Amino acid sequence: MSISIAIVEDEKNYNNALKKVINYQDDMKVVAQFFNGNEALENLFDISPNVVMMDIQLQDMLGIEIIEKLKNKLPDTYFIMCTSFEDDEKVFNSLKAGAMGYLVKGESMDKILSSIRDVCNGGAPMSFSIARKVLGHFERKLPEIKGFDELTEREKEILELLSQGLLYKEIADKKFISIDTVKKHVGNIYRKLHVSNKVEAINKLNHFKN
After folding, report:
1. How many whole angstroms from its chain centre is CA 163?
2. Cβ distance 83 to 55 under 8 Å?
3. pTM for the full model?
4. How much helix, strand and coil, in percent to the nearest 5, is found in the chain?
5. Of all helices (H) and strands (E), which one includes residue 83?
6. Using an 8 Å Cβ cutoff, are 93 and 63 in contact?
7. Cα 171 to the chain's mean position, in Å?
8. 3-139, CATH topology level
9. Are strands 78-83 and 28-34 parallel, antiparallel or unpaired?
10. Domain residue extents for the chain
11. What is the bridge-based pairing of β-strands 51-54 and 28-34?
12. What does the alpha-carbon distance between residue 26 and residue 197 come to, in Å, rounded to a whole number?
């Protein structure tokens, strides 16, 4: 069965080059080309392609916005970003919006074609430079969770009570300890979680729970 593909790309030469190479394949076909975001928004739902090759920085809107608006309406469509932007914010916003792949323009056409096949088989294709960013992001997150594991049971209890909005005096009364002891525990919590205030500590707690 042929893979149906829509291209959303305002650079006409690149859009047409993608179409030409894709249509040369036996197992895939371009069913739509869009050169701006509004056209794509109006028509993609009716077309429901298997894969959308999506540029991030369109002239009239961000490709990320299109994915956010259409992802739930097109649950069986895979979005692959194909763009010249590699900055962290755009990468992670694209992935959070629901993109299943992220390719940098300049990749070989062979890589692009294999990525289309890969995403249809459950993969999440990314350019090497993007994959390194994603891995680096999660490596930086690991110490946060490790820090939570270093808390004592009493410190975890106090952090939980802080997250419920209790004041130091209320925690002290509830745990039958002095306010100074509560403050000491809170200081240890901040140090182990590498945070500087209550809001950051509670955010870490919520991150761990999720």
Report:
1. 26
2. yes
3. 0.63
4. 60, 15, 25
5. strand 78-83
6. no
7. 37
8. Rossmann fold (3.40.50)
9. unpaired
10. 3-139, 153-209
11. unpaired
12. 59
DSSP string, 97-145: HT-SEEEEBTB-HHHHHHHHHHHHTT---B-HHHHHHHHHHHHHHHHHH
CATH number of 153-209: 1.10.10.10
**What would the pLDDT profile of 63-80 be if each residue is shown by its tens digit?**
999 999 998 899 999 999
d(CA 208, CA 183): 23
Biggest CA pair distance of the chain: 76
The tokens describing 115, both together, are 């990525």
d(CA 25, CA 3): 10
* Alpha-carbon span 71 to 94, nearest angstrom: 12
pLDDT, tens only, 107-166? 889 999 999 999 998 888 887 777 666 666 655 554 445 567 788 999 999 998 988 888
Q: Which two tokens stand for residue 124?
A: 């999440």
How does DSSP assign 47-58, residue by residue?
A: H--SEEEE-SB-
Q: How far apart are CA 106 and CA 113, in angstroms?
A: 13
At 129, give phi and psi (nearest 5°).
-65, -35
The conformational region for residue 166 under phi > 0 = left, psi -120 to 50 = alpha, else beta, is beta
Q: Which two tokens stand for residue 185?
A: 């525990």
Kindly state the tokens that stand for 20: 């030409």
